[in-house]
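Final paragraph of the annual report: two paired records, presented back to back.
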Amino acid sequence: MLEVFTGDSKYIEIKDELLNRQKKGDEVTMCSIVEKFTNDGIKQGIEQGIERGIEQNCKEIILNMHKKGCNAETISDLSGIGFEIVDKVLKQDFLDKD
């Protein structure tokens, strides 16, 4: 039912997982449902935090290399970060300074 309102299929996945736990003889209560949502939220938050940390680290690498005189192509070649991303970061940094 929640999927209808949110368009998110994770509710069906959670329902199926909880039904499987129940079939195995595990007790499924509102507490276990809330715990499942909480744990999924924590996992998602950690994944997003890691992703943002990686993005921030890449941005710092790009900007530091640029300050040392490297152009976008050189930064991309040496760092392994895609040229499009390097170019976007450098352009955004330039716009932020205006």
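The closing record of the year follows.
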Amino acid sequence: MKKITMMLLLTTAIAVCTVPAAFAASDEAKDAADILYEQGLFLGNGTTATGAPNFELDRKPTRYEAVTMLVRLLGKEEEAKKGTWNTPFTDVDEWAKPYVGYAYANKLTTGTSETIFSGNDTVTASEYLTLVLRVLGYNDKIGDFSWDKAWELSDEIGLTNGQYNANTRDFTRGDVAIASKNALNVNLKNDNKTLGATLRRNKPAADINTSKSVVKPSVPTQNISNERPSYSETDNSYNSNSGKSLIAEENDRHQQVLQDLYRRRDENRNLVNERIREIRAENIPYMGSESEYERRTSELIRKTSTLQSRINTLALDDSRDAIAERKKKEQELAEAQKELDDLTARYAAKNAIASLEELQKNYEDDIASQIDKENALHQRNLERLLYE
């Protein structure tokens, strides 16, 4: 799916004559996300079918996600969660209140209006770089940089390397990961210590995401013996150590191996079925064809790109008509982005379920093969015991 989405995004980017930096740096973004994940700074959205963190690096980041990264990069997540915060915003989701509250109380973020935070709106490159620069101690309020041209200072201090400018339209979670990882190696303002060193000093053991995940089922490692059962030197039908006939011992061994194989099969089946139920509870799996998904996704990506371009143009016009049209376009953009996010999530759910079902099928095939081998071994052992 990621490959398909990448191709669609690239096609759209060419159509609107922009070149998103994250696409060219997908490997860099994944590496950056992994590094941040290990430090508890970038936790992703759930897990993939293989149990790996689902970083969603091709998706545009939201204001909620940006302010969460801001608090984590400051090393203040625990303080934020333990604190009691009052903000004027009436639209903040419960989980995000500690992050928004801390950032607002410390004058690190504002809302889109006096009472609205708009946490699900996406952020631009300059907006996110502004937050990171504030983490590093720079202050746009006193003239350290201009928030709408934050890339100028970020290029100067080595946080970025010229990939962002006024024409940047596509800024993804992959870009967030790269910028955040780079920030760890940048010195704080007027200090010879890096952000990473400060975080390690203030928080030596970062919290790691312990969300439930499903690991690819492993084939049972039970070794089924093909050795002939031990015989008493004086009696081939009786084992003086156990007090059982050798045939009875072989039957016991056989039943134990089968029970263990069936147990492993059933435990794995229950685990996979439980994870599938969780996925279905989170998102209704997409039921259409892949071509339909690609067509609709492409349409929505083109639509969001067109709307964002129009909004950026209108932002330069302070007339009443322009402001009214911009608000209308922003609403349309939010609706289109939500539909795209929902569609992507449903398609991901469909693929995750298919992957889990395939893993389970392969696992049960392996179990069935081992059962066949054990049955054949058991038959050979019985024949030797009966005829020798």
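Residues 1-25, 204-240 have pLDDT under 50 and may be disordered. This concludes the annual technical report; the extension proposal builds directly on these records.
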